[in-house]
Queue: 2 jobs
Job 1
Amino acid sequence: MNHGPVIFLAAFLALTASWFGFVLMPDIQVGGLQQTNMVGVAATYPVERPGLAREGLDVYRANGCASCHSQQVRQSGTVCNVVMTDAGTNRVAVIDVLTQELPDTSRSEIEQMLVGLPKTVLKGSDRPKANRMVRALKSSGAKSSLSIVPVGPDIARGWGKRQTVAEDFLYDDPVMLGSQRIGPDLANVGLREPDARWEYLHLYAPRLEVKGSIMPPFRYLFDERKIGQAPSPDALALPPDLAPPHGYEIVPTRKAQGLVAYLLSLQATAPLFNAPLTVPPSAEPTAQTNAPSKNP
Amino acid sequence: MPEPIQPTPIAETGEPQASQLAMPVWLLVLMFLLLYWGMVYFDQHSGWFNTEVYVPYYSLAEVQEFQPPTGGVDLQRGKALFDNVCALCHNPDGMGKPGQAPPFVGSEWVVGPPSRLIRIPLVGLTGPVSVKGQVFTFAASMPPMGASFSNDDLAAVLSYMRQSWGNKAPPVTSDEVKAVRAQIGNRAQPWTPQELMQIPAK
């Protein structure tokens, strides 16, 4: 019996189906992604990485950073907090509202809430309850604001403010998502360690900056050279046991500069429609300063 | 002496053959039901394939529920209105068009006192206008483009203009728009820049 055409057809259908699922559908979903507007701020996101940081992406890729570091912050949910900023003048009414809205809180705890504002009076609630509380506080003369707070294990570790979305990688080619977390997640490393000197020292000798770090040192990204007329401003300030011989200095190469510029540009905290969060009023949105804060 | 037992030959019944057997109907129905349930489950848990919906959220409505409050002025709406109405002459990047409209980027009229800025879209503007030291003269005056906007919408557009393209001025509130509307009353004559300058900054 000749089953050739049937086998061919079955194999063709199986491969086509997976091509639809793995190639075509994702391309339809995010292939045409463009810059988007931040929520509540008249600015677009993301901003293209500066040239040096773009070079750094290639260094990041070439050194296999993505085999130990991921760049995806996950989020398990979103909660609403209510922050009271001003108790107004009608203390009795405000206490009444709080007693009504927070039935499990004792009277003395509520009175404590009015001291030392601004204070979070409602934590981890859903939107309707938080909205109701903001309205009730407003009618009692107090001022409060509702903040949207993403939550999840990664966010609790301080690895980000919100989950990673496709927009964060719009200008990256290839996208260095990473799959293992032998080291910490780097999606927001530019926010955690905004100091270029810290990054250089950490690349040169990881254990200088992080005790017990298992990251290998990347000393070949640095040059040891004779000090010229004056020491270079980029030279690393190393402790005596690592310092080069007298008259020499350790300076980052172009590759190290690119890598650090790239790391500093990793700041994915802009409030977007698909990843909503409330930016603290004092903090400037970070995407406007996507460029490294301290250029080496 | 007993006879040796002769093995009786097993009757050959021929090669076993597969015959056609109809698939039970209940199995087919069950398969289709499972397939349908699987697809619905897949759809629901991928936000109905909406690209704006990421994992902790299961639907667009849920994402919308968690949009932070905008604090009175909706800059998104401001941008949408600007791009639809104002950008025809003033360009989406706020740079204006030669011979048609002056730029907004860094313009002292835009980032200046709201009391003057709000008046311009409500009844229009005519005459040579100086922006950043450069005098612009246009053949036609600006029509009252914002007169039909609600107070909220006009506040949103003006706030968007004051906070975009590098402009950094405090937003215009809809109460301010309401107050200015009441002050100008039924005026239909477009403003001249000189008239506007006489209006107190606050």
Job 2
Amino acid sequence: MNTLLEAKGISKRFGGVQALHDVSLTVEPASIVGLIGPNGAGKTTFFNVLTGVYVPDAGTLTFAGLPLPAGQPHRVARAGLVRTFQNIRVFPQMSVLENVMVGFHGRTHCGLLGAWFKGPAVRREEREILEGAQELLEWVGLQSMAQRVASTLSYGAQRRLEIARALATGPRLLALDEPVAGMNGTERGHMTELILRIRAAGIALLVIEHDVRWIAQLCERITVLDYGQRLAEGTPAEIQANPRVIEAYLGHSSHG
Amino acid sequence: MIAGLARFKRLWMLLGILILPWAVEGLLGRGWVRILDFALLSVLLAIGLNIVVGYAGLLDLGFIAFFGVGAYAYALLASPQFGVHWPLWAILPTGVLVAASFGVALGWPTLGLRGDYLAIVTMGFGEIIRVFLNNLTAPINITNGPQGITMIDALHLGGWSFARPHRVWGIPLPALVGTFYLFLLFVLLALFLSRRLEYSRIGRAWMAIREDEIAAASMGLDTRRLKLLAYALGAAFGGVSGGLFAGFQGFVSPESFTLQESVMILCMVVLGGMGNLRGVVVGALLLAFLPEVLRPLGDWQQHWFHHVLIDPSTLRLLLFGIALVILMRWRPEGLLPSRARAREWHTS
């Protein structure tokens, strides 16, 4: 199978801070890859470069054989690489259902004239968006909250809503930025189950996480970042046994 | 059954609106029908600005510029200024195109801006347009400067002039009432188009951009294009209103398009309830009428105190300001807010 995502030698500097230096990473189709590292290691910066929020100073990004458009988040999303955010960014005053319906924007077509004349094709498309959104809400277990205002949902439910909205875009790679941060054991279990179901649907996942034990039982491969550089890459077992990783990352986290 | 009743309610409302100018003329006099006609143009403007501010969340403080562009487009294409006299059906689409192009041209440089910064830049653009209208007199005299353009052709369709009274099925139709119906037609069309957009893929996308632009872009929304579309559409509605204004008044000059007017339209949208069409219409009507209702303040003072204590025009603005402050203090979300706006103010 061809590699789905290939990031090669990504560097990004903010003024005097080298946030990323020569970072490489690959994701195979329908696999789960973990991205770990201490706070400030550059994980979220890497996500932002990946999804077009930042333009990298150096390096190449190839997705499904094509270069990813740098600095154009909407085109990255339409190419099939979609993300969630570390600090949840649902559309707070829109309903849960509307949030997911927005996700369908990139693969639907109704324009100005379509909205005005509302012909049969537009009606059909609207019905498909509505049904698709309801299906996705059911899939993540939020169907009973479809009409609620997004901001009134619990933290865990908002995370699931973000994932449903991202799935609505029809991604081939879903990038999750700390999907279980601040969650208790039960909620983590639900998230694990959801992530595995997403993978089973043929969608690859790239997951940022602090909790090494949680990510180790989830991923096929893990990349470790430290001070903006790639410290190690390997299977969860290799990573957990790597002395450099233990020193740089696991050692710190077990004390703090 | 309920749908049937609702349809009936609508029918009654429409009938009421159709009778309104006659009632106003009978009860209050012809002057008030003229005010009513101007109020409809304000409603049209507010519906346009609502697309930009209410739907897409782009704070625009220079919106009156598009009204001005539409008005001057009509004035130049139907007056002795250049000696051209286009018919209405040709001028309005031209005005729409010109205004929409201005919307895109002025929107383009502001795409990266939000909130306060956007407001300041749009305010600057609004003033630039006004200054241009004031000064485009050399080397070719286009706008005729501060004197403005006079003797603009009256609104007419074919042989039917809206500036003259007519007789329809034996019933005399005063010019101002005929104009009311013409403007009403445009307002209803604008309401229809606006409503269709609100509940469409594009309306949802605008709302998403308003709520969180970064998240919206990350979900595959081309935020630049969508924002430009909002600017262009809002400007187009403003341009139509401006064109009708020029034809109705028969005269345009730059002083009709000042910052104060931009602020006034914004007040209409905010006060009525951003994002909610019904609220916007109510807000526009209210603010169009309030200053007129307060006009006889001098007479009232004369009547109560036997002499005028405070200059009526000053007092009028003072009361107007106080009314705005009170309203915004007690109902910050506007008179008839959209669902989302009401929640913003009352959930946290």
